[in-house]
Each structure stands twice: as C-alpha cells, then as structure tokens.
Amino acid sequence: QGCDAVVVDLRGFTALRRGTAWELGQLRETGALARTVFLIDRDTDQAAVHEALGSTPALPLPAARVMALDRWVDGEAMIEALVHCLDAPRPAAPRASPGPALRSAA
Prior knowledge:
Number of helices: 3
Structural class: alpha/beta
Shape: globular
Mean pLDDT: 81
Low-confidence stretches: none
Largest sheet: 3 strands, parallel
Strand content: 5-15%
Radius of gyration: 18 Å
C-alpha cells in the first residue's frame, strides 16, 4: 500500500498553507519522507516547513532530496531524484485490527 516516491512542490510555501502543512505531517507519520522529493525556491519558508514536520530548523529538510528551483524543473535531475527514492526502505504495513467477534444467535 502507498507509493514508491512522492514529489511535494513547496515553492512559495508559508505557514499559512495549512493544507500542505497537514500533508507534510502525514508524510512524516507514515514514514514516507525517505521517499520524498521537496521542490523549493527562494520564497519557500523553510522554517515553516520544519515546523510542519516537527523537525529541527538548524538541520537540512528531512527528505530524500531537496531540489532548489528558480523557474523550471530539470527533468533529468527529477527522474534521478525519484529513482533514488525507490531504494528507500518502506515502513512495515500496519496490521489490520480484528473486527468485532461474531456470535451465534442460537
């Protein structure tokens, strides 16, 4: 279940983008950051990204790759970053919880 690689476009990200911040938290909770490529630019508030992830601002962003972009995406570099994600270990799938016990009406 899940995906092999994730690309998150964080260009222009600020703390006001709560939906994206929630998605970042989901990536952290599911262990998908090791398979994630972040796209950032000079307008990306990296402190807000760290806050959304619960990570330390003094450290690099916790993703498999962080690609700094100006105006365009280098397709070859993007493919290389995504292929790199394929080698990342995947967390164990959560075990399904047993359903309620069924009882006979007899």
